[in-house]
Amino acid sequence: MKTDNFPTALTELLVAFTLLTRLPLPHLPEKAFENSARAVWAYPLTGLVTASAGCGLASALFAAGLPVALSAGLGLALATFLTGALHEDGLADLADGFWGAHTPARRLEIMKDSQIGSYGTLVLVFSTGLRWMAWATLLASGPAWIIAAAVLSRAAMPVLMRALPSARSNGLSHSVGRPSGPRVAAGVVVALVICLALAGVPALAAAAAVGVAAWGIAWLARRKIGGQTGDVLGASQQVGEVFALCVLAAAVQ
After folding, report:
1. pLDDT reading at 3 higher than 60
2. Helix orientation angle between 43-63 and 143-163, rounded to the nearest 10 degrees
3. Within 10 A of 191 (CB to CB), how many other CB atoms are there?
4. In whole angstroms, what is the distance from residue 235 CA to residue 91 CA?
5. Closest Cα partner for 172 from 228, 98, 116, 95?
């Protein structure tokens, strides 16, 4: 049984990393993406890898004598580069669409536009700035907590995929499909186990913060466009990570 299941689990893991990162990966056949929703349990692992790489660089630079703020900024930049700024793009599109129009159809149209507006620019400045400051706060005392926040925030995306209908008939989120309850629950369990190992009891407070952020994004998405899109999922990851980092940064003060 283990031999039969391992190739499937490995394929799902690679699908998750292909969708959510820009890491060099083995080429997968198109058939592997026919039921991409089965891979949502592995979403937290993408945060584990990308944030670990960023924290590794930041910790090395800090140990070499670079100021903590610069070390944290370069580490955050690497982690963002490894995801292709996919989640940041979603957050910016959501801000432009949700507050740049008065009808769901127009909001969706703006969110699909590749150009960024004032709302998107401002929200990226605030999001990146808050994460940068949190990284600088946590780097010296608990870089593992930075990784925990990245892991937890990725577990929120499948929850929204399950809870909300797709707001459009095309796009990345629609093509992935609606994940099953057990797959979503598996992703949450994976994230909690990793984060408890990394951050201990404070991980539970961070998980609660991510839950609040996800609920807020879900409420807004249902009210503004009637469901979720890939941009909504990306925004939930970003906002969830900010909330988690703020809670963990407060814990070390």
Report:
1. no
2. 160
3. 28
4. 4
5. 228
Q: Where are the alpha helices (DSSP H) in 21-117?
A: 43-63, 68-83, 86-100, 104-112
Cα–Cα distance, 85 to 204 (Å, whole number): 27
What secondary structure letter does DSSP report for 65? Answer: T
DSSP secondary structure letters along 164-206 = S-BSSSSSHHHHH-PPPHHHHHHHHHHHHHHHHHHH-THHHHH
Q: What is the pLDDT of residues 175-234, one digit of tens each?
A: 778 999 999 999 999 999 999 999 999 999 999 999 999 999 999 999 999 999 999 999
Residues 6 or more apart whose CB falls under 8 angstroms from that of 165 comprise 226, 227, 228
pTM of the complete model = 0.93
Q: Please report, to the nearest 10 degrees, the dihedral formed by the alpha carbons of residues 181, 219, 166, 241 taken in order.
A: -70
Q: Coil, helix or strand for 228?
A: strand
Which residues are CB-contacts of 156 (< 8 A; sequence separation ≥ 6)? 210, 211, 213, 214, 236, 237, 240
